[in-house]
Amino acid sequence: MPRVEPTCPQFDYITAKDAYPAMVAGFGSGKTEAAVLRSIMGKLAYPGLNRGFYEPTYDLVRMIAWPRFEEILTRLEIPYKLLKSPLNYISIEGKGNIFFRSMDAPGRIIGYEHADADVDELDTLKDKEAADVWRRILSRNRQKKPDGKPNTIGVTTTPEGFRFVYRTWKESPRPGYRIIQAPTSSNPHLPDGYIDSLRDIYPESLLQAYLEGEFVNLTSGTVYHTFSRELNNTDITEQRGEHLHIGMDFNVQNMSAVIHVIRDGDPVAVGEITGVLDTPAMIELIKDRYAGHKISVYPDASGGSRKTVDASTSDLALLKQAGFAVEVDRSNPSVRDRVTAMCSAFCNAKGERRYRVNVRRCPIYAACLEQQAYDKHGAPDKTQGLDHAPDAGGYFIAKRYPINKPKAGMKRIRGLA
């Protein structure tokens, strides 16, 4: 069998004897690779017993877990058979099965059992959901081992603030719960420039988590903490006939729109329309104020089914009927991704400020960016009316300037053929 040469944190995790080791790691540190290796090595150690492998969604099982298992099993020259939906397991010849499950439907974590398990990206789940999933996986982890050793569950994750993994493994760890830290820099197989590329797209506050694998407060202070009224300000205005890009948030009797131009590839907010009754009224205001301009609207995706006016036509359909180009996906990006895209555009870790706001012409937008805070649940507060304009601007930024995490490339297994 070929030799495996993991990084030091990977080796510590793969060989950990603790009941519940957690590899808390930065992007590109090889945590999923370590999870797969730990799963395979653990499976080989206990022929005939089952093992579980969990991802946040079925898409990640299909796109991440299965290809990684197939590649590694092939390189290790281990015969296997992958049985996809609806069975969802890998059968290793003479060694037993590895079951694959998603964590987005905890109620389906029933009807099977295993001796050990591996959980990838547990911290992407909200606190309550993560705790529920963890209890359910623990209940499945009950096949008795012939050598009497305890059942184990390994976790690999990027830290997402002070969530379930922090509380369980760091704040109040019980016996058997151990953290293995893995910074991005621990992986020598990353492509050149990978770490610098992360600094280009993430604000400094996130890099302790996403580069170092540290637990940091991602929900303290104001939501758009990188915005500066002085440093992000500009006197740029739209020019005659210029293409306008309008982010739009749908709210009955309180619709908001933030008007942008793009200069040298960068976004500039040059106007705002707030407190509008409904979509027909918003359309009328835009047509009146910006006659002669090409208009692209980047709305809240829920407008495909919602109606701000009592009529049979959806908000998105009304925008299209008005002659506007509508740029929207089937669903909105996650709130975290939208906020991160905004904060990075206002100022990334290199101090670059790409997103500028004409504060004089966008007074409400600027005030909301300065003042919106997080609520007690760690979500942007929506009780003070400060969310509408930033949401509108955020739909445009998240669509045109999304956070596209650079691919680290797959860490290869080296050794004798």
UniProtKB/TrEMBL annotation:
<dbReference type="Pfam" id="PF17289">
    <property type="entry name" value="Terminase_6C"/>
</dbReference>
<keyword id="KW-1188">Viral release from host cell</keyword>
<dbReference type="InterPro" id="IPR027417">
    <property type="entry name" value="P-loop_NTPase"/>
</dbReference>
<dbReference type="InterPro" id="IPR035421">
    <property type="entry name" value="Terminase_6C"/>
</dbReference>
<protein>
    <recommendedName>
        <fullName>Terminase large subunit gp17-like C-terminal domain-containing protein</fullName>
    </recommendedName>
</protein>
<dbReference type="Pfam" id="PF03237">
    <property type="entry name" value="Terminase_6N"/>
</dbReference>
<feature type="domain" description="Terminase large subunit gp17-like C-terminal">
    <location>
        <begin position="246"/>
        <end position="398"/>
    </location>
</feature>
